[in-house]
Amino acid sequence: MAPKFGVGQALRRKEDDPLLRGGGRYVADYAPSGALHAVVLRSPHAHAKFRIVDRERAKALPGVRLILTASDIPHLGNLPTPGVIPGPTIKVPHYPILVKDTVRHVGDAVAFIVGDTLQQARDAAEAIEIDWEPLPHVIGAEAALEKSAAQVWPDQPNLSFETELGDAAATKSAMAQAARQVEVKIVNQRLVTNYMDTRGVIAEYDGARYTLTLGSQGSHIVRDIICGEVLKIAPDKMRVITPDVGGGFGTKLFPYREYALTAVAAEKLRKPVKWVAERTEHFLGDSHGRDNITSARLGLDAQGKFLALDVDIIADMGAYLSCYAPYIPWLGAGMASGVYDIPAGHVRLRAVFTNTVPVDAYRGAGRPEASYLIERLVDAAARETGIAPDVIRRRNFIKPRAMPYTTPTGKIYDSGDFATHLTRAQEAIGWDGFKKRAAAAKKQGKLRGIGIATYIEACGNMGPEKATVALDQDGGVTILIGSQSTGQGHATAYAQLVAEQLGLPPDKVRMFQGDTDKIPTGGGTGGSSSIPCGGASLEGAVKKLAQQIKKLAADQLEAAPGDIEFGDNMIRIAGTDRAVSFADVAKKAQEKLAADDTWTPEQPTYPNGTHIAEVEIDPDTGRTRIVGYVVVDDFGVTINPLMLEGQVHGGAVQGIGQALMEDTVYDPQSGQLMSASLMDYALPRAIDAPRFSFETKNVPCKTNPLGVKGAGEAGAIGSCPAIINAILDALYRTYGVRHIDMPATPQRVWAAIEKAR
């Protein structure tokens, strides 16, 4: 019999009650006594030389405590780029904490101002006199490669690096044998994360150590980089605390300039210094996501079997190489062939500098780009060959018997049954009845379309992660772990892993995270790794603790350890009513009962699934409405199906945002970010989300001790291609439209219809 609160149970999240009642504690809620307030003075130019003419007038304003410019912090190192990739030698340009004389994007950091109040700091920032000399700039990945393009960096070309994956010769040979070649060119537009609480930090200094309270996806990552690379001090000289976090999505994983600046200011002033980004500052100062332009060719034989895949990716890095920036498009390139048995493949990847905000990981980090490309390409192949989109997929799926399967780019899939979840998704959405629904819509003057995306991604390998568990005097269990919840529900999922081994209810399990003094190491949360890595470590630690508890309980009950079992919050001799409580065992132990374990994954996990979207388009306005949406996923073993479904819903809605409305727009002439607020940048709302149908067809992962496959990013990976394929299905049926780029806004859809008419 499964434990009441264990693995597979649909428990409601234990952390939700205080959050829903306003009891959450976010960075902006922290107000240490005497805290000063800081602002960052940012560049209004995309590319310019500058000279600070006068800052003395600003310094003399009431309440102004400190103004930092580049000349005041020569001892600080640059923000580093640890996310390098195998192969190319990448020359990483300096990414200064404050720019000295040349800004390279709108929002580049020029000065840091601290005042008694936020308004006084703002007034001082406006009073700093700067002489600007605008320079030529370049916007757009393809534009950056043109011979006449302005150079972002004077000592290196706009081409940051170039690399390749797969076998170019084998791909060329296979392509030559193809009966047909299908080509697409697609844009994966730039996105801004827009988590609920913007980034913030409060720095304190006691004369010996810094304490930074900040919203992050991993306190240890921020501490180690800021200390080791920027402040150039030992990590034990800093404590980083992460309280509640309202969304991270990859963008809060990295260190940012303000963390070092507040630390320096707190040391100089010997008072707490607080900085919290405004929403527009988030657009201008936090890393962006996606921004790829990709061309691809697919070679097929006469029966529609895939023979070769050739891909060319241009990835916009922005003005600097952010923390993991080179790794993101490289990770996506490795997943280019998707769920398909393609014998030969080759990917060319070029990364370029532009005068824009740097780009880094955003939910899915390269894998949504890969899924969108291959699924758009497969649908194009279906139209070109006349083979139905579901049929051409089944004809080319990697078969379960072929597992483990090595892709042309070297990924090793351990498990998966792609045809099964496609079949179930078609049943759930009523695939066979679509033509009747389309005909009924046509009578109402509307266009119906249906689109498939069968995706796979690589994740769950951001380890190692260490978990420590201890039995407390009250009979509860304390978990110490270095992953970081930003809304996923770690406290509940980890409590279920404890319950699986010990039978304890969730309220008897306490989780501590986000404090580098209490938790010695931590890998943070990214790449859907918290359960695959952190959970696997936790399971190992709890099993060790269980053996300790059984041994002591056996001594108290005068039984053999093998006869001891857990259940109903008690420890008993199996088959009898003789029992002791967890608290009894803890109190009688001569030393605290504790155990730890570390899981280091050797391979990623490969979650996969099918999204099918059905849309209805008003041809007079171009408005798209999602009228049906089905997801059938393979996540291996499921810890909590209720939380899993919530994760998929959230990711799918972010994909809906990218597919239909989100767009980061720079003006090529001025270099200005035109969509720098929520007045200009559309986000999906509840009304934009369909009623999702979600279920799983799980195949346990063979490379993870829990059998789980990472799930946090999957919804955002399958949704974009499903929706755009559905829109194109509707447009092609009536008007022969073969291409549209994201976001498929009403204006863009209407324009495609008018052009076809």
Topology at a glance:
Blueprint: H1 16-20, E1 36-42, E2 48-54, H2 56-59, E3 64-68, E4 102-103, E5 109-115, H3 118-127, E6 129-134, H4 141-144, E7 159-166, H5 168-176, E8 180-191, E9 200-205, E10 210-214, H6 219-231, E11 238-241, H7 257-269, E12 273-276, H8 279-285, E13 289-300, E14 306-318, H9 327-334, E15 344-353, H10 367-385, H11 389-396, E16 405-406, E17 412-413, H12 418-429, H13 434-443, E18 447-456, E19 465-471, E20 477-481, H14 490-502, E21 509-512, H15 530-557, E22 564-567, E23 570-573, E24 579-581, H16 582-588, E25 594-599, E26 608-617, E27 624-634, H17 641-660, E28 692-696, H18 714-735, H19 746-756
Describe this structure in words.
The protein is built from 19 helices and 28 strands. The protein has 757 residues and is of the alpha+beta class. It folds into three domains: 16-24 and 462-599, Aldehyde Oxidoreductase, domain 4, CATH 3.30.365; 33-373, Aldehyde Oxidoreductase, domain 4 (2-Layer Sandwich); 389-460 and 603-756, 2-Layer Sandwich (Aldehyde Oxidoreductase, domain 4), CATH 3.30.365. The strands form seven sheets. A seven-stranded mixed sheet has the order 3-5-1-12-9-10-11, sandwiched between helices. Strands 7-15-14-13-8 form a five-stranded mixed sheet. The chain is globular, with a radius of gyration of 27 Å. The N and C termini lie far apart (63 Å). The mean pLDDT is 97.
Features:
single chain, 757 residues, alpha+beta, Aldehyde Oxidoreductase, domain 4, 3 domains, seven-stranded mixed β-sheet, five-stranded mixed β-sheet
